[in-house]
Amino acid sequence: MSLLKLVGVLLDYPQDELWQHGDELVAAAADPGLTGARRQQLVDFTRELLAKDPLAAQDQWLSMFDRGRSMSLLLFEHIHGESRDRGQAMVDLIEAYRKNGFELSAKELPDYLPLLLEYLDQRPLAEARDWLHHVSHIVGLLAARAGERQSPYAVLFEILVEFAEGKLELGALRQRASEEPRDDTPEVMDRLWEEEAVRFGTEAPDESCSPPTRTPARHAATRQVQP
C-alpha cells in the first residue's frame, strides 16, 4: 500500500474494515521513503488508532472532522465556502477524475481529501505532488489546527505537505490557528443550526438549509482499505 493511499485510509471515517486490514496498515506505515522520525510517528498513529475500540475511534473522528467547518476534509469548503463557485469547481474536478478513468459513486463528494488521495495514488508521482502542492496551504492549516487541538491526526496532514515538497511553517500557522475562534463548541454548533434552520411556507429552501455537519455515508473507506 502506497503512502498516499495509506494516509487517505487513515484520514477517512474509520469503518470496521480498517481493523480487518490492521497488519497491512502497520506494515505500510513503515514507509522507507519517510524520515526515521516521521516513519515512527506514522507507525505509532496507526497502531494507536487500531488499538481503539471502533466506536471510540469513530466518535473521535466525528468530533474532529464533523463538527464545524474549520477541520472539514472537504477542500472546497476552505476555498469557496458556500459560494456558487464551489459547484463549478466540483464539476471541473469530477471531469478531471473521469478523464483519467476514476469514477465516483453517487454518495462521494469529489473534494473529499481521502478520495482525492485515492485518485492521486493512481497518478504519476510528479502529478500527485503538483496536485498536493496546490492545496498545501489548506493542508498545512489543517495540520496547525489539528496540532492546536492536540489531535494525533496532525501528523497525517504534516506528512502530506512534506510529500508535496512544501515547507511547513508550523509556528506561524499554529499562531494563526490559536487566534481563530473555535467553531466546534456546543454553543457555536447550536447557533449554526438556528441560523441554518429549514424555512417553511412559500419560500423554498436553498443550499443554506443544509446542516453544518455532514454524514460519513459519503465515504469510500471499504474500497480504499482493500489492497
From TrEMBL:
PANTHER family: NITRATE REDUCTASE MOLYBDENUM COFACTOR ASSEMBLY CHAPERONE, NITRATE REDUCTASE MOLYBDENUM COFACTOR ASSEMBLY CHAPERONE NARJ. Keywords: Nitrate assimilation. The keyword Lyase does not apply. This is Nitrate reductase. It comes from Lysobacter daejeonensis GH1-9. One of its GO terms (biological process) is nitrate assimilation. One of its GO terms (molecular function) is unfolded protein binding. Residues 200-227 are annotated as: Disordered. It comes from the Bacteria. It holds the Pfam family Nitrate_red_del.
